[in-house]
Design goal:
Elements (H helix, E strand, L loop, with lengths): L6 H16 L5 H15 L3 E8 L2 E9 L8 E3 L9 H8 L7 E8 L2 E9 L9 H18 L11 H35 L1 H32 L13 E3 L1 H10 L3 H6 E5 L7 E3 L4 H14 L7 E7 L3 E7 L7 H4 L23 H11 L3 E6 L5 E8 L2
Parallel strand pairs: 7-9
Antiparallel strand pairs: 1-2, 1-5, 2-3, 4-5, 6-8, 9-10, 10-12, 11-12
Helix pairs in contact: 1-2, 1-4, 2-4, 5-6, 7-9, 9-11
Length: 386
């Protein structure tokens, strides 16, 4: 641990943070900038921010050596001393409790999370200056969340009922659409078989098959959302080729979605991943559909993959509007959708990311959202190496 914080780096970064806050920015990139600034100004090997929910926390922003903890659920086992410290250490420092500095982040009278800086090795105890710098940066995180201080708790009964009512209405619409198309093409085949010709019949069968696949995926989503503690199904996990599985999953996407995907960052060979290979089609469909829904139609959606010593990772990146820090965790809640003001243009049941997290965590992996350089959002899935 450096003897003193790097005040030159802190000052430069602080000016950027304050300018963005005063300009009204509240996106995940601002939070990520604060986390990186904590690492750099304190000379850490990595840093991370864990947002709190009822009974646990989750890392929603991380940098440096802590990056692999992004998206990990943390037990709130040490909340009185700045957050889920022991759990954070376990995912970032391989169980070594030394060299970690933590500070609580508060919005009004509510503790909304904790900011952590991990150091390369256990050394001297942090001094008052180190604590003061981290607490200053933690206060900036609190400012990002300040407008939430007076909001009702996520589990508020009235809000849950409102979400369920909306979910029923939207899901009914989603179910009706493929059913109507399938019935229409089936009737056409029955009543106009001869006049359609071979090409017309093949096209009708192709559309029926595509819509039936869409309907099957929607039914799977509804079944998985039917209970809070039920399983998601799927085959027992095992080693599989992630790159090959992703390319196969891309082939099952709707044609208009396949055309938007760019696969330049998908390597030809990776270490084996450990999980349920068949679930990749569902995971990729949900993430790619989400990226397609919330990004301009003339922009690409990028699919990439990589590996490290512990995990095999793939991501879907878009050039959309991005996500606010306070929405990162809520985006994974059942039935929840961000209020973009254009619900008619972007209908949905609010089940996609909820389903993805349940499937991935059942395989001992984790999923996270992070800002994309230049704007947009990256949805990142990490699975254990096989």
């Amino acid at each position: 641990m450096p003897e003193r914080p790097d005040y030159a780096t802190l000052t430069k970064g602080q000016i950027v943070v304050l300018d963005r806050l005063h300009a009204g920015e509240a996106g995940l990139p601002v939070l990520h900038h604060i986390v990186r600034l904590a690492q750099e100004s304190l000379g850490g090997a990595g840093a991370g921010f864990a947002e709190y929910d009822a009974g646990h926390g989750r890392v929603i922003s991380a940098s440096g050596g802590c990056s692999r903890a992004l998206g990990r659920r943390l037990d709130r086992d040490d909340a009185g001393r700045g957050g889920p410290r022991t759990s954070f250490v376990r995912h970032t420092r391989d169980g070594d409790p030394g060299g970690l500095l933590s500070a609580r982040c508060e919005a009004g009278d509510k503790v909304i999370g904790s900011l952590h800086v991990a150091f390369g090795e256990a050394g001297e105890e942090p001094g008052p200056e180190h604590h003061a710098v981290l607490e200053l940066l933690a206060s900036y995180v609190g400012s990002l969340y300040g407008h939430r201080a007076g909001l009702p708790v996520h589990g508020d009964q009235a809000r849950r009922q409102e979400d369920r009512d909306l979910w029923v209405a939207v899901t009914s619409h989603e179910l009706r659409t493929p059913v109507t198309v399938i019935k229409g093409y089936a009737d056409t085949l029955t009543n106009h078989w001869d006049s359609l010709g071979e090409d017309g019949r093949q096209e009708a069968v192709r559309v029926i098959g595509a819509r039936a696949g869409e309907l099957a995926r929607l039914v799977d989503r509804l079944l998985s959302a039917a209970s809070d503690d039920g399983g998601v199904g799927g085959a027992p996990p095992g080693p599989f080729d992630l790159t090959e599985a992703l390319r196969h999953a891309v082939g099952e996407l709707p044609a208009e979605l396949r055309r938007r995907l760019v696969l330049d960052r998908l390597p030809g060979e990776l270490p084996k991943a450990f999980g349920d290979r068949d679930s990749l089609a569902t995971i990729l469909t949900e993430l790619a559909t989400n990226a397609d829904k919330y990004s301009p139609p003339d922009t690409d959606v990028e699919l990439g993959a990589e590996s490290d010593d512990h995990t095999v990772t793939f991501w879907v990146a878009d050039r959309g509007v991005g996500v606010k820090p306070e929405h990162v965790e809520r985006a994974f809640e059942r039935y929840w959708q961000a209020d973009t003001g254009d619900r008619q243009l972007h209908p949905g049941a609010g089940l996609g990311l909820y389903l993805v997290r349940r499937i991935v965590e059942r395989q001992h992996g984790w999923v996270a959202l992070r800002p994309r350089e230049g704007g947009g959002t990256v949805a990142e899935v990490r699975l254990p190496r096989g």
